[in-house]
Amino acid sequence: MAAQISPSILSADFARLAEEAKAVEGADWLHVDVMDNHFVPNLTLGVPVVESLRKATDTPLDCHLMIEDPDRWAPAYVDAGAGSVTFHVEAAAAPVRLAREIRAKGARASMALKPATPIEPYEDLLPELDMLLVMTVEPGFGGQAFLDIMLPKIRRTRELIGKHGLEMWLQVDGGVSADTIERCAEAGADVFVAGSAVYGKEDPAAAVQGLRRQAEEATAAASWACGH
Ligand SMILES: O=C(CO)[C@@H](O)[C@H](O)COP(=O)(O)O
Ligand SMILES: [Fe+2]
Q1: Which atom of ligand 1 is nearest the CA belonging to 195?
Q2: Interface predicted TM-score (ipTM)
Q3: What is the pLDDT of residue 225?
């Protein structure tokens, strides 16, 4: 699968969200960070904003829920028009039931791991998911430095996906930029969230294309992608 870029609107101007969403058309996804000031110490947006964004752009919405009780709220984001819904395993009471519900409602189901959460206890859940998100910063804020110490977890997750012969995607989120995206791709990521590295640039659409090119070149040279 080709590398996919998902610009995070957390780094956009919230007073001009429709324009900012249009500024990255050509991206594979638009990453929407939902924060509730409980699961993370920051507050962003909710279902009504996602409904409005859905009407403002043709780019599919990749909703990253950093909220408590995703079991209750995640289905509402599918109804609001999200094409992919990511919940945090640390917050979910019943991750398998929730993933099945998201899929049954017609969206891609994805599960996120904070930096201190290992992948190994969740190996058996992977077939229930369309994507696994390895956080490469502590969730809560854009513009943080990439955590290199997450690279081994990305590698181990890619190995598990290969071991089970799954088609699922592996997303990285946090500090992904022109300086770090190649390391992520080499380690096995194939969906890249980038906030400040896209919206912090003069030409966000060109930044998306540049990141995609770098990721694709690094993937082509990576051993995990041989035969893909
Ligand atoms: O989920 C989060 C932060 O919790 C991210 O999606 C950030 O919005 C990414 O921003 P950058 O680190 O790329 O600036
Ligand atoms: Fe995110």
Answers
A1: 13
A2: 0.99
A3: 87
Domains of the chain: residue spans and CATH: 4-225 (3.20.20.70)
The pTM for the full model equals 0.98
Can you point out the beta strands (E) in the chain? 4-7, 30-35, 61-66, 84-88, 108-113, 131-135, 169-173, 191-194
Q: What share of the chain is helix, strand, coil (3-state, %, to 5)?
A: 45, 20, 35
Q: List the shell of residues around ion ligand 2, using CB closer than 5 Å.
A: 33, 64, 173
Residue 46 C-beta-side C-alpha neighbours within 13 Å: 8
pLDDT digits (tens, 9 = 90+) for 162-183: 999 999 999 999 999 999 999 9
Q: Half-sphere exposure (CA, 13 Å, Cβ side) for 145? A: 3
Per-residue pLDDT band at 226 (split at 50, 70, 90): confident
Q: Which residues line ligand 1 (CB under 6 A)?
A: 8, 10-11, 31, 33, 64, 66, 137, 139-144, 173-176, 193-197
